[in-house]
TrEMBL record:
It comes from Sporosarcina jeotgali. This is DUF951 domain-containing protein. InterPro entries: DUF951 (IPR009296). The lineage of its organism: Bacteria, Bacillati, Bacillota, Bacilli, Bacillales. Pfam families: DUF951 (PF06107).
Length: 67
């Protein structure tokens, strides 16, 4: 299986929906843990990288890499 490619400031779609009603999240920090921010309500969470790759469905929009 191909490894999922994602980067900082990418907007990703998760498999499960957030309680606010959206499943679009923005990647705001990367490392051993990934911090993502809900684009619906602004809530941010930090989850381990391996758990994030299991729960991520696809990249909706690529982030800008210059900043």
């Amino acid at each position: 299986m191909e490894a999922k490619q994602f980067g900082i400031n990418d907007v990703v779609e998760m498999k499960k929906q957030h309680p606010c009603g959206t499943n679009s999240w923005k990647v705001i920090r990367m490392g051993a843990d990934i911090r993502i921010k809900c684009l619906g309500c602004g809530h941010s969470i930090m989850i381990p990288r391996n758990e994030f790759t299991k729960k991520m469905k696809r990249v909706i929009q690529q982030g800008d890499t210059e900043s």
